[in-house]
Fold this protein.
Amino acid sequence: MHPVILKTLGGLTKQYYFRQMFFSILIGAMAFTLFNSSTHPMQSGLWVVAFINLLLYPYSRFVYESVVGFVLGENVFFVNALFMLVSKMITMLMCWWFAIFIAPVGLLYLYVYHSRKQAE
């Protein structure tokens, strides 16, 4: 494979990638079901963006978790489980819907990280 592809798209661990892809497919299936149940048909451009978001979600989630990890550090918060699940679902949906904008940051970071690691 081309080194750029290996450093970016292949930059996440397989376990992390497949876990996030599972949630991406789940969110995508819910979105497609929601759009198909509507009285107005979904435009083809929205289908394309939704499919791109489905593929880029793991990288978008990587960026989100990296930023949250940087800000919060190793702190542990004890909160209501329902509040935590709802906030987790909201952040997952936001990462999925905005993956087309967020994921390039993660792909760039993975490329730079793996390039530096290879140079060592």
User: Anything to note?
Assistant: The chain has one domain: 3-110. DSSP finds five helices and no strands in the chain. The longest helix spans residues 44-72.
